[in-house]
Amino acid sequence: MKVDTTLNSPFTGNKSVVVEMVGKIETRICMDTGFTTNSEYKIGSEKIVEFEATTARLIKELRYEDTELGQYWYPTTVMFVHGIIYPEGNLKEWNWVYAPVVKLTEEEKENYPVPGKSGEYYETRVAVDLSEKYAYDDFRGVCQRLGLAKEVVNG
Fold it and tell me: CA-CA distance, 71 to 19, in Å (whole number)?
Protein backbone atom coordinates (compact mmCIF):
# COMPACT_ATOMS: atom_id res chain seq x y z
CA MET A 1 0.00 0.00 0.00
CA LYS A 2 1.45 3.35 -1.08
CA VAL A 3 0.63 6.47 1.00
CA ASP A 4 1.08 10.11 -0.07
CA THR A 5 0.24 13.19 2.01
CA THR A 6 1.20 15.96 -0.37
CA LEU A 7 -2.13 16.74 -2.03
CA ASN A 8 -4.11 19.89 -1.36
CA SER A 9 -7.62 19.65 0.00
CA PRO A 10 -10.40 20.75 -2.37
CA PHE A 11 -12.16 22.07 0.76
CA THR A 12 -9.43 24.05 2.54
CA GLY A 13 -6.53 24.32 0.11
CA ASN A 14 -4.21 22.88 2.79
CA LYS A 15 -1.86 19.97 2.14
CA SER A 16 -4.01 17.65 4.20
CA VAL A 17 -5.22 14.93 1.84
CA VAL A 18 -3.86 11.45 2.52
CA VAL A 19 -3.83 9.26 -0.60
CA GLU A 20 -3.54 5.48 -0.49
CA MET A 21 -3.42 2.95 -3.29
CA VAL A 22 -5.00 -0.36 -2.36
CA GLY A 23 -4.69 -2.58 -5.39
CA LYS A 24 -6.11 -0.57 -8.28
CA ILE A 25 -8.30 1.67 -6.09
CA GLU A 26 -7.04 5.07 -5.01
CA THR A 27 -8.58 6.43 -1.81
CA ARG A 28 -8.30 9.97 -0.48
CA ILE A 29 -9.22 11.44 2.88
CA CYS A 30 -9.04 15.10 3.81
CA MET A 31 -7.72 15.24 7.37
CA ASP A 32 -9.06 18.80 7.73
CA THR A 33 -12.69 17.94 6.95
CA GLY A 34 -13.07 14.15 7.25
CA PHE A 35 -14.42 13.85 3.72
CA THR A 36 -13.26 10.89 1.68
CA THR A 37 -13.41 9.68 -1.91
CA ASN A 38 -12.03 6.87 -3.99
CA SER A 39 -11.43 6.23 -7.68
CA GLU A 40 -14.71 4.30 -7.91
CA TYR A 41 -16.80 7.33 -6.85
CA LYS A 42 -16.82 8.80 -10.37
CA ILE A 43 -19.61 11.28 -11.01
CA GLY A 44 -22.45 9.45 -12.80
CA SER A 45 -21.07 5.94 -12.20
CA GLU A 46 -23.00 2.86 -11.15
CA LYS A 47 -20.79 2.62 -8.05
CA ILE A 48 -22.35 5.86 -6.79
CA VAL A 49 -25.84 4.40 -7.18
CA GLU A 50 -24.75 1.24 -5.32
CA PHE A 51 -22.97 3.17 -2.56
CA GLU A 52 -25.79 5.64 -1.96
CA ALA A 53 -28.42 2.87 -1.87
CA THR A 54 -26.98 1.68 1.46
CA THR A 55 -25.66 4.97 2.86
CA ALA A 56 -27.18 7.16 5.57
CA ARG A 57 -29.26 10.12 4.41
CA LEU A 58 -26.92 12.68 6.02
CA ILE A 59 -23.86 11.30 4.25
CA LYS A 60 -25.67 11.51 0.89
CA GLU A 61 -26.90 15.04 1.63
CA LEU A 62 -23.37 16.22 2.50
CA ARG A 63 -21.92 14.79 -0.73
CA TYR A 64 -19.42 17.15 -2.39
CA GLU A 65 -18.97 17.18 -6.16
CA ASP A 66 -15.31 17.61 -7.11
CA THR A 67 -15.53 18.55 -10.79
CA GLU A 68 -11.74 18.83 -11.11
CA LEU A 69 -11.26 15.24 -9.92
CA GLY A 70 -14.52 14.03 -11.46
CA GLN A 71 -15.52 12.31 -8.20
CA TYR A 72 -17.82 12.72 -5.23
CA TRP A 73 -16.53 13.14 -1.68
CA TYR A 74 -18.51 12.00 1.39
CA PRO A 75 -18.07 12.37 5.16
CA THR A 76 -16.23 9.30 6.38
CA THR A 77 -17.43 6.65 8.81
CA VAL A 78 -14.59 4.67 10.36
CA MET A 79 -14.67 1.75 12.79
CA PHE A 80 -11.63 0.92 14.89
CA VAL A 81 -11.00 -1.57 17.68
CA HIS A 82 -11.51 1.18 20.27
CA GLY A 83 -14.38 3.10 18.69
CA ILE A 84 -16.20 4.50 15.71
CA ILE A 85 -16.24 7.94 14.09
CA TYR A 86 -19.33 9.02 12.16
CA PRO A 87 -21.31 12.14 11.21
CA GLU A 88 -24.63 12.82 12.96
CA GLY A 89 -27.32 15.48 12.61
CA ASN A 90 -28.92 17.10 9.60
CA LEU A 91 -27.76 19.08 6.59
CA LYS A 92 -27.89 22.43 8.42
CA GLU A 93 -26.45 21.28 11.75
CA TRP A 94 -24.22 18.25 12.09
CA ASN A 95 -21.29 16.99 14.18
CA TRP A 96 -18.62 14.34 14.20
CA VAL A 97 -19.27 11.69 16.82
CA TYR A 98 -16.84 9.37 18.55
CA ALA A 99 -18.48 6.37 20.20
CA PRO A 100 -16.18 4.00 22.10
CA VAL A 101 -16.31 0.23 21.89
CA VAL A 102 -16.80 -1.18 25.40
CA LYS A 103 -16.39 -4.68 26.77
CA LEU A 104 -19.62 -6.24 28.01
CA THR A 105 -19.95 -7.78 31.47
CA GLU A 106 -21.25 -11.34 31.70
CA GLU A 107 -24.67 -9.98 32.72
CA GLU A 108 -24.77 -7.47 29.85
CA LYS A 109 -23.84 -10.10 27.24
CA GLU A 110 -27.25 -11.72 27.62
CA ASN A 111 -28.76 -8.56 26.11
CA TYR A 112 -26.58 -8.96 22.99
CA PRO A 113 -27.11 -12.43 21.47
CA VAL A 114 -25.37 -13.25 18.15
CA PRO A 115 -28.18 -13.71 15.59
CA GLY A 116 -28.55 -17.30 14.41
CA LYS A 117 -26.11 -18.67 17.01
CA SER A 118 -27.93 -20.05 20.00
CA GLY A 119 -26.08 -19.48 23.27
CA GLU A 120 -23.48 -17.12 21.72
CA TYR A 121 -23.21 -13.50 22.74
CA TYR A 122 -21.23 -10.48 21.63
CA GLU A 123 -18.22 -9.53 23.77
CA THR A 124 -18.34 -5.78 23.02
CA ARG A 125 -20.74 -3.06 21.89
CA VAL A 126 -20.53 0.40 20.40
CA ALA A 127 -21.43 2.64 23.34
CA VAL A 128 -23.40 5.43 21.68
CA ASP A 129 -24.61 6.33 25.18
CA LEU A 130 -21.00 7.34 25.96
CA SER A 131 -20.42 9.18 22.68
CA GLU A 132 -18.57 12.47 22.39
CA LYS A 133 -19.50 15.14 19.84
CA TYR A 134 -17.09 17.31 17.88
CA ALA A 135 -17.89 20.25 15.63
CA TYR A 136 -18.30 19.48 11.92
CA ASP A 137 -15.07 21.41 11.29
CA ASP A 138 -13.06 19.56 13.99
CA PHE A 139 -12.31 16.25 12.29
CA ARG A 140 -8.73 16.45 13.55
CA GLY A 141 -10.07 16.74 17.11
CA VAL A 142 -12.07 13.54 16.86
CA CYS A 143 -9.06 11.80 15.26
CA GLN A 144 -6.84 13.03 18.09
CA ARG A 145 -9.31 11.51 20.55
CA LEU A 146 -8.61 8.12 18.96
CA GLY A 147 -4.87 8.80 18.77
CA LEU A 148 -4.97 8.93 14.96
CA ALA A 149 -3.68 12.49 14.51
CA LYS A 150 -1.27 14.73 16.29
CA GLU A 151 -2.01 18.31 17.17
CA VAL A 152 -0.59 20.66 14.56
CA VAL A 153 0.76 23.94 15.92
CA ASN A 154 1.32 26.78 13.45
CA GLY A 155 4.03 29.31 14.03
Answer: 14
